[in-house]
Task: structure prediction
Amino acid sequence: MMRMHNPPHPGEVLRDGVFTDSQVSVTEFASRIGVTRVALSRVLNGKAGISADMALRLAAALGGSGQSWLHMQANFDLWNAEKSLKKVVSKIKPLEVAA
Result:
């Protein structure tokens, strides 16, 4: 069953939550969490997902948990997979297991 909403990419949440009206630049924040500006920019622009490594770094800098960032990424990925694989998945017959 497809979900009714399109969850945002975690980079969009990060961009809107940290960098909108913020005094911190992408370069400064990347340095603060120990990643390259390019790596952070790819996440912020939705070109890369949140890895476990990045999730832990974000949680350390912003509070919260790495799990929350990974959960957000998983929701985004699953929604997109459901959307793109809907026809393929609908043709898969469930495995019948003897009781």
Summary: The chain has a mean pLDDT of 93.
